[in-house]
Write a structure and sequence with these properties.
The structure is a single chain. This protein is of the alpha/beta class and about 240 residues long. It has one domain: Cytidine Deaminase, domain 2 (3-Layer(aba) Sandwich). It has 5 helices and 12 strands. Strand 10 and strand 11 form a beta hairpin. Helix 1 crosses helix 5. The longest helix is centred in the middle third of the chain and has 18 residues. The protein is globular, with a radius of gyration of 17 Å. The N terminus and C terminus are likely disordered.
């Protein structure tokens, strides 16, 4: 997994109450830093990571896919204790990234396009949001950060609050990593970004082949694909609200 980005930007945490937890994944460690992942962003990562651009809803992507995570760094004070947390409110897939069987690569132009679109959306909402990390898939390889992934995290998302999410669409598993050393999170909190007052997530756009786009059946095929995927995910997680 290779990303081409120029620098890591440090930011000051904004004060905001901890989001209401609707689920917990794993066992979040007690400490001053926490990760909150919205169910809306989680759904987008799962659907985009499982979508097959050839239109076959029964064949998952063999190539890695990735994108950026949107949210911000916040803090709250509870009983005199300062708790810092990264809230991930949305995810933006990079559908045009150059992908191979074991890598995904953003060139400078693609990365700028993704970031510009994300920043334009953020400006329109008027909310204090930013890119807080990245995600990518490991189809059939399991959930881990490879040496190249760790290098990407260290060089590009190298603050304590930056997040990486790895999703294996074949094994139906995912994990969260944070900080410059890609520390595996023992657990994280799931919340509803809309209920918390964040803007609705951006509409998910997935790429089809030219021949598939010419077929008006494409939208129906995608709707069926999404329905099948969410039915599978609901066996692992509590019901996920539609965000598309």
């Amino acid at each position: 997994m290779k990303f081409v980005i120029k620098k890591v930007v440090e930011v000051e945490a904004l004060r905001r109450p901890l989001p209401a937890t609707i689920e917990m994944e794993g066992e979040p460690a007690a400490g001053e830093f926490r990760v909150f992942l919205s169910k809306q962003a989680r759904e987008k990562i799962f659907v985009a990571g499982s979508h097959n651009p050839m239109g076959n809803s029964h064949v998952y992507r063999e190539n890695e896919r990735g994108g950026v995570l949107i949210g911000n760094l916040f803090y709250d004070e509870i009983d005199g204790e300062r708790i810092t947390y990264t809230a991930i409110t949305d995810a933006m897939p990079a559908e045009e990234a150059d992908a191979g069987s074991t890598h995904v690569e953003f060139d400078g132009g693609m990365l700028n396009k993704v970031m510009e679109e994300a920043n334009e959306h953020i400006r329109k909402t008027g909310h204090n949001l930013r890119i807080v990390g990245w995600y990518h898939t490991h189809p059939g390889f399991g959930v881990f950060m490879s040496g190249t992934d760790q290098n990407t995290q260290r060089q590009i998302y190298g603050t304590d609050w930056h997040i990486a999410i790895v999703f294996d669409p074949i094994r139906r598993d995912y994990g969260v990593f944070y900080g410059k050393d890609s520390v595996p999170a023992s657990g994280w909190y799931i919340f509803d970004s809309i209920s918390e007052g964040f803007p609705p997530p951006m509409k998910l756009r997935l790429r089809y082949t030219v021949s598939h786009l010419q077929n008006r059946q494409a939208e129906e095929d995608f709707a069926l694909l999404k329905e099948n995927l969410l039915e599978e995910f609901q066996q692992m997680f509590s019901p996920i609200k539609d965000v598309l």
